[in-house]
Amino acid sequence: MDRSTRPVRLADVAKAAGVSHGTASNVFSHPEIVREEVRERVKATAEAMGYAGPDPKGRLLRAGKVNAIGVATNEPLSYFFDDPFARVMMASISQACDATGAGISLVSAANSEHLAWNIQSALVDGFIVFCIEGDSRLVELARERKLPFVALDLDSENQSVAAIGVDNIAGAGLAARHLAELGHRRFAVLTLPCAEDGHGPITQAQAETSLYAGTRDRLRGYLGELSRFGIEVSQVPIYETVNDEESVWAGLDHIFAGAEKPTAILAMSDKMALHALDWLRRHDIAVPGDVSVVGFDGVPEGATSKPPLTTVAQPIAEMGHRAVKAILENDGASSRQLMPVDLVVRASSGPCPVKS
Q1: I want to staple 221 with a disulfide (CB 3.0 to 4.6 A). Which of 173, 186, 273, 324 is the partner?
Q2: E strands of 67-225, at which residues?
Q3: Percent of the chain beyond pLDDT 70?
């Protein structure tokens, strides 16, 4: 084959520079052991021939590791930058990778076909999988790669997946108990997605059969705790959102159009709770004077919102550090790490209005 029809190889550079292949290799990998005169000659020859240096992927693959972690989600790539929870998690993953010299590859796709290709072709040592449950497509694809992976979610019904997460049932119970102890008896729940085809008012049965473990478990935590206070949970309005402003505002439009308006809102994420605060402020509904709001996650934005948000805080940064460690120090075990949550009480929650 004529050289012009294929990439220039290190062997071509060595031959043109009049040195052995080993010497040419050392110029790029161990330059300190090559005489300066020879180094300069080989580099000048390489530059003239358009050779940029050995492909690091080949060297890393030969070593059996590429020293990189894939962070995968079936959300659009913008999720890593737009979602408050994802931003904090990615910052902690990045810090842990920086400390070990490992790289990060973000893996997402607009559809399942692209997601499959991206995961199958990702040059990584393992995957950290965002926002999934045990039998999701993401887990199946990660398993097919036969690489270590860890999910940032704990499915209460699937114990076979390596995961780092929190007890969503217990965490949601903390939020519901806090509001019930403040005297609230009229609640509304804004949920994370239950299915893949939209948002709107849903029944308790629909929410409990959600595709997503986090949604199911947080609802169980809310309703289980409310029932202990004698609240008729079948009457609690539940609105499925897609965790964005449009669906949260639509949900509150629907909920507050009803005859009995809630005095307490349980939001399954801080992101939707913050959108709820905006909606309530625009409608001149005082928080917490008329309505109390409690979120779930513990993102930094909650501490500076108006009013500051009461929330169930996850140890997001520690979860990210542990996820990186689980991949880089993988021993073949499928471990599950349950992290603690804390109820952080701020100004968005207060006693039930006397008029209720």
Answers
A1: 173
A2: 68-72, 103-107, 127-129, 149-151, 163-166, 187-191, 200-202
A3: 89
